[in-house]
Write a structure and sequence with these properties.
With 163 residues, this protein is of the alpha+beta class. Helix content is 39%, strand content 34%.
């Protein structure tokens, strides 16, 4: 009986410690990538602001189960994506997963007047609940989401530079 009591108390203390450590981690995670592209910013912006064009440069959107309802709304294998705002070469979108998790995305074009290149920057912000498994799991976002953003931005660069 004494060992059972010790095991229960140890589990409770360990759970509290993990929760407290998890609360010390940030409640939002931002993953951002950028790429230099030598192309007209209007051409690039058209590719970025229209979901029908996304299938040409975002990996996985050519799969079965991807439904694009309009230029601003789509369902990508259970993730509902909505372009919420498009202004000044900036596209804001909301990505709601099957579980209800929300990520906000911002794609922007930065043009320097002295250069023929533009910078395309894409970032995802995920807001986390207090659950320790969510906070600890978010540490993998940089590796997984970052690699995907790099791959997609490279495909966009190839698409617009080799027209």
């Amino acid at each position: 009986m004494r060992f059972i009591k010790l095991a229960v108390i140890s589990c409770v203390i360990l759970s509290i410690a993990i929760t407290v450590i998890g609360l010390l981690l940030p409640s939002s995670v931002v993953v951002s990538r950028a790429i230099n592209i030598t192309a007209n910013q209007d051409v690039v912006f058209k590719k970025m602001s229209n979901m029908y064009e996304w299938k040409n440069w975002i990996t996985g959107l050519d799969k079965e189960g991807v439904i694009i309802q309009s230029a601003t709304e789509g369902n990508f294998l259970g993730t509902k994506v909505t372009i919420t705002d498009t202004t000044n070469y900036t596209i804001h979108s909301s990505w709601v997963g099957k579980s209800g998790s929300v990520q906000h995305s911002i794609m922007r074009i930065i043009h320097h007047a002295s250069s023929a290149q533009i910078v395309v920057q894409w970032q995802f912000t995920e807001y986390l609940k207090w659950y320790p498994w969510q906070r600890f799991g978010s540490m993998m976002n940089e590796a997984v989401t970052g690699a995907q953003l790099e791959k997609n931005l490279s495909a966009l660069k190839q698409l617009v530079e080799h027209r």
